[in-house]
Amino acid sequence: MANILAEIVENKRQIVTEAKSKLSLNEVKSKLSCGHFRMSQTIKKDSWSLIAECKLQSPAKGRLNATHSVLELAHIYEDNGASMLSVHTDPHFLGSNEDFIKVRSEIKIPLLRKDFIIDEYQIYESRLLGADAVLLIVRILTPEMLKHFLYTAWSLGMDALVEVHDETDMKAALATSAEFIGINNRNLKTFTTTIDNTLELLPHADMSRTLISESGVFTVEDVDKLKGAGCDGILVGEGLVRASDIAEQTRNFARI
Asked: What is the topology classification, in CATH, of domain 4-254?
């Protein structure tokens, strides 16, 4: 299978270039207002958090949900106990900036912009869209870029979920002051998942940080394993959008 991540990142460079041509960084900066670290305020007040993802498609598995819109999923999640939402804006996942704006206009809980951030422009753009947090993927950033993007997000009143996939990524994340570390259970080359990745990486983590297990969570048993191992929360997309009863599964995963 082709390296899906490499394909996405290459396409992302073109998307960012086009966005800059339509609205310059200075113009973006002039239009935005700072956030209030709503992810921190929400996630840290509870012992367990569900970040529910509005995800319609996967590059590896194709269409995951054809019965709900992003906005409909967002309302189901919010109404059934999700702590915050992850909203895709990358076209490989049928995400868009327009969908993010719609969700922001109707949803009160914090929003994470789920995208592949490779340029500081995207961080300012995220805040302009109304994001409370951004995803920073260690694998696609240099250590210098990771720290710069982290501090840029903070300067805008946004939190950042720093995503790791292996022990090398974890060391890079722990070398920063990141508060939130997401352990992704997805192989970035094949996009297959297993929660064993989180369980194997937790001994290498700093348990004083907020640790979120991402992807590959499909059952209540998965949730119990991750919570029992020391995770502070989960980020779930496919495990929710493909459930026979999305509302019930949201409640199950949110532990309410």
From this structure: TIM Barrel (3.20.20)
